[in-house]
């Protein structure tokens, strides 16, 4: 079976360049099916209509493109508006175009588009023909335009981290997507759409918020910021944005935190895009006039020591090992009613340069087969991450996954583990001030505004974010 045919302005291979065997074609088909299984989340019509309103669609003879049209909701709503405004005298396929990699979804999109045509008086056969010429079953990342092609680009691009993209497609995309835009399919689509829209055009998307927040998307933001500003940015509620979320129970929202965003090209004014993270809907003036936690105390991340039972042991195992190698350890499950309970596990502390005693080596040798692959080191006695954290002073533990940044006290000699956050200050008085600040309403609001959102009201706290947190009780 032959591959896609290149045509003017597009980046696909020439017809003679690719010849697939049946086996290779089956691998490709399976990869596309898996990708669809992972990413097919569709946008509800009210959200689509709001984005089309912000584009001012339809507008004269400008062209609208949806690069990952799914079952065609964006195309159908755009076409309905176009036909209502201009019922005759033009070729719809010249003004509206959709791309979809999955054959089944492409079929659904054509059927939805054809229904719109029939409502405006076209016969079923003519409607099917028009839909066929409007919706392409092709991969936008490998075959899509690489220079200005559309005036408006709108849709709901896929959100999927590169590690989860099927291997066949990931290897294909490596030849078409810049390395700095390859961490997530969303990044890849934004980069390609930035090249495919005219200089004064607009991109209107429903996207996951993470490309605005994550440090890994800094270069993407900078690149887009050289050509676009943000004309509109709004947080959306996930349970109202999507319909038919694939492979979830009815009514269950997807595990993303969506935003509506419009990027405007040309000389228009708006929120500037740069390497700096952007937090949708945040009033930055609320946090002015305070010192940050990083100016007042030291924030550290507790080590991850691998599978329980190897370097992290229970009381029974600890009782059989030399005490000089052991320190009590705490995790979030030791927090009860806002206070830290007695430690129930111990950490085997070793140093890379010094081989521990035979009892420790025998224990590690007998348990290392249980260690997660990413936790194994060349030296048997070296844990996945260093345990050299200074625990000589009282500290504060802030759970890494939490609903607020509240802390608990950790006594000297106890080691926090599992990437929870640890805070130490110069004096007992300073530690008390930090503890009070972490429990304040301002800290809770700041964390809700800035931390990556998870599910059920939880957020992901990091050392960098915590260092930037304003101290409500320490004004500048």
UniProtKB/TrEMBL annotation:
Gene3D superfamilies xref list: Vaccinia Virus protein VP39
EC number(s) given by UniProt: 2.1.1.72
Position of the signal peptide: none
InterPro entries associated with the record: MethylTrfase_TaqI-like_dom, N4_N6_ade-DNA_methylase, SAM-dependent_MTases_sf
Protein name: site-specific DNA-methyltransferase (adenine-specific)
GO biological process: DNA modification; methylation
Type II methyltransferase M.TaqI-like domain mapped to chain residues: 151-242
Enzyme class: transferase
Catalysed reactions listed for this entry: a 2'-deoxyadenosine in DNA + S-adenosyl-L-methionine = an N(6)-methyl-2'-deoxyadenosine in DNA + S-adenosyl-L-homocysteine + H(+)
Keywords tagged on the record: Methyltransferase, S-adenosyl-L-methionine, Transferase
Protein family per UniProt: Belongs to the N(4)/N(6)-methyltransferase family.
GO MF annotations in UniProt: site-specific DNA-methyltransferase (adenine-specific) activity
Keyword field contains Transferase: yes
